[in-house]
């Protein structure tokens, strides 16, 4: 199963995941660039999907296995950007 932003958002919205994985209760955010304000839309911070994925990759194997159990997937494919900005992928 591909760990996409939509899957991560559903995990953030599900209290079972929040109880098991505290970083999903208050996910890291990245600030949007400020606009001119002409349209009246307020710029808000958005979830930093890459950092959430890197947090998942940094978990111990027991936590990763629990995550896969809660999702109901035998394996997760995670695409993320490393510190140098290159796209990487890992299967857990």
Protein architecture, described:
The chain is of the alpha+beta class. It has one domain (5-33, 42-91). The protein has helices at residues 5-13, 15-20, 49-57, 61-71; strands spanning 29-30, 46-47, 77-81, 87-91. Strand 3 and strand 4 (87-91) form a beta hairpin. The longest helix is centred in the last third of the chain and has 11 residues, at 61-71. The relative contact order is 0.19. The mean pLDDT is 83.
**Uncertain spans, ≥5 residues at pLDDT below 50?**
none
Q: What percent strand?
A: 15-25%
- Total count of domains: 1
Q: Provide the gyration radius in Å.
A: 15 Å
What shape does the CA trace take?
globular
Per DSSP, the total helix count is 4
String of helices and strands: HHEEHHEE
Structural class: alpha+beta
Helix content: 25-40%
Q: How many β-strands, per DSSP?
A: 4
Mean pLDDT: 83
| Distance between the first and last residues' Cα | 10 Å
Largest sheet: 2 strands, antiparallel
**Main sheet: strand order:** 1-2
Write the layout of secondary structure elements.
Layout: H1 5-13, H2 15-20, E1 29-30, E2 46-47, H3 49-57, H4 61-71, E3 77-81, E4 87-91
Which terms summarize this structure?
92 residues; alpha+beta; two-stranded antiparallel ribbon; two-stranded antiparallel sheet; 4 strands; 38% helix; globular
Task: Describe the structure concisely.
This protein is an alpha+beta fold and 92 residues long.
């Amino acid at each position: 199963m591909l760990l996409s932003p939509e899957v991560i958002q559903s995990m953030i919205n599900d209290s079972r995941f929040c109880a098991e994985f505290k970083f999903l209760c208050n996910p890291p955010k990245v600030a949007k660039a400020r606009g001119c304000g002409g349209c009246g839309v307020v710029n808000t911070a958005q979830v930093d999907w890459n950092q959430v994925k890197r947090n998942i990759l940094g978990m111990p194997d027991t936590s990763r296995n629990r995550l896969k159990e809660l999702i109901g997937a035998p394996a997760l494919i995670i695409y993320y950007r490393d510190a140098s900005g290159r796209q990487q992928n890992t299967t857990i």
